[in-house]
Design goal:
By secondary structure, the chain is an alpha/beta fold. The protein has helices at residues 207-215, 262-277, 301-317, 331-334, 356-360, 377-385; strands at residues 5-8, 38-40, 45-50, 74-81, 85-92, 101-106, 114-118, 121-126, 129-137, 149-158, 181-183, 197-201, 219-225, 228-230, 244-247, 254-257, 282-286, 321-325, 340-344, 365-371, 394-399, 407-408. Strand 18, helix 4 (331-334) and strand 19 form a beta-alpha-beta unit. Helix 2 runs parallel beside helix 3 (301-317). It is elongated, with a radius of gyration of 24 Å.
Length: 414
């Protein structure tokens, strides 16, 4: 059982109740400090405090934002969670001019265990156990500490399954962090790479190659585009004119599709059935972030979430594992629904931390950084593999055409 710690810098007006048998350890501890967190008895809860007077100044920086100074006082809260669900902590510091407090999420009572940070809201799925919430005061570059009053709101939504519904993954394959893999979408498949997983094109791979991979004990992920029409695919003529949006910039022959369309969803059901019929273990739906691009269809974030949940449900109903490709802005809502993640270039864009939600759930993050030429690979590998934000990922360095060439970090998957 894991405990999640949410850290906010601020204060409280709730009772202090040390865990039974530990009172002697808390002598001399300030209420609201790390050694004597405030216990919140029920949720939802609305708490008020003032970082000028409450808690202690014990932590000035957190591992999730090491260059940000949190040099003021912080207050720690403890919440007992009886069942799995989503905890949301929000802080409002608008009541006082010049007040700035931040929210942090930690996996343990340790500043180095910080997994997320925000200046207003943190939301994360948590397992049963003790959850810690903390409020810390931001400090400017000139050393000014922006402490003062705030209101902290805590909300909890327990996981509730629909009557008769299957488990979230339906017993499908869920690869653990560090799973080794090869990603090849062009050229003749080199089936000799010693890895646990191959990610290959659903339409282009031959039956003989699929049989060889499976006979060799590889798990097979089958790639297809779930968010665009590719004019060279055999089923391209099934898309209606009303289904089509703008071209994908930089990708000839592709146009965004309307993920709300019943016709589009029927095409995707058939693609998922093809993957199941061909013996794929998993699917990689691509281009699932149309809402965040100039799609020409007016797609919203809510439309994209609904479509991705549809894809996951349809994949699981066919016994297929399914991965979330990129779409980092949707990870908080979908990390429980999807079985693994695949990301391109999060080191280059300094955004890998968004994928920690998958690692926290024991799910693999398959990760690629690109080079234009193979000759650039060695230096790129050294830089990428030294970047700690991708720790725990299964990282490859590849060229953009995704042929058989690959480099890995020392240790194989890493």
């Amino acid at each position: 059982m894991r405990s999640i710690l949410l850290v906010l810098v601020g204060c409280h007006d709730v009772r202090l109740a040390p865990p039974e048998g530990e009172a002697e350890l808390l002598q001399g501890c300030v209420p609201g400090s790390a050694c004597a967190p405030i216990e919140v008895g029920t949720l939802p809860a609305t708490l008020s405090g003032d970082t000028r007077t409450d808690g202690e100044d014990e932590v000035d920086a957190w591992s999730c934002a090491p260059t940000t100074s949190e040099a003021g006082r912080e207050v720690w809260y403890a919440v007992d969670v009886a069942q799995a669900g989503t905890l949301r902590a929000s802080v409002d510091d608008t009541a006082g001019d010049g007040v700035d407090v931040d929210v942090h999420l930690l996996a343990a009572l340790d500043p180095d265990a910080c997994v997320a940070r925000d200046n207003a809201v943190v939301e994360r799925h948590v397992d049963p156990g003790t959850v810690y919430v903390v409020v810390d005061t931001w400090a400017g570059r000139d050393g000014t500490v922006y402490d003062g009053p705030y209101t902290l709101s805590l909300d909890f939504d327990p996981d509730v399954a629909e009557p008769g519904s299957p488990a979230p993954t339906g017993g499908v394959w869920v690869p653990p962090p560090g799973t080794t893999w090869q990603w090849q979408l062009s050229g003749a498949i080199d089936a000799s790479v010693e890895v646990a997983v191959y990610d290959i094109d659903l339409f282009d791979v031959s039956d003989a190659t699929l049989r060889r991979l499976r006979d060799d004990g590889r798990a097979v992920i089958c790639y297809f585009s779930a968010g665009s029409r590719e004019d060279w695919r055999d089923d391209a003529d099934r898309f209606l004119p009303a289904d089509l949006g703008r071209p994908l910039e930089g990708w000839a022959g592709e146009r965004w599709i309307d993920v709300r369309s019943a016709n589009v969803r029927e095409i995707m059901r058939d693609r998922l059935q093809l993957a199941a019929d061909r013996g794929c273990d998993a699917v990689e739906p691509d281009n699932v972030d149309g809402y965040a691009n100039a799609n020409g269809l007016g797609l919203t974030r809510a439309d994209q979430l609904d479509y991705l949940r549809f894809l996951a449900d349809e994949a699981h109903a066919r016994g297929l594992s399914v991965g979330l490709k990129n779409a980092l802005g949707l990870v908080p809502e979908l990390a429980d629904t999807f079985d693994w993640a695949l990301n391109e270039e999060c080191v280059a864009y300094d955004e890998c931390g968004a994928l920690d939600a998958f690692l926290d759930r024991g799910k693999a993050v398959f990760h690629v950084e690109y080079v234009d030429r193979q000759s650039q690979g060695a230096s790129a590998r050294d830089r990428v593999c030294a970047d700690r934000q991708r720790d725990g990922f299964s990282t490859l360095v590849k060229t953009w055409d995704l042929d058989a060439w690959r480099l890995t970090c020392p240790g194989g998957a890493r």
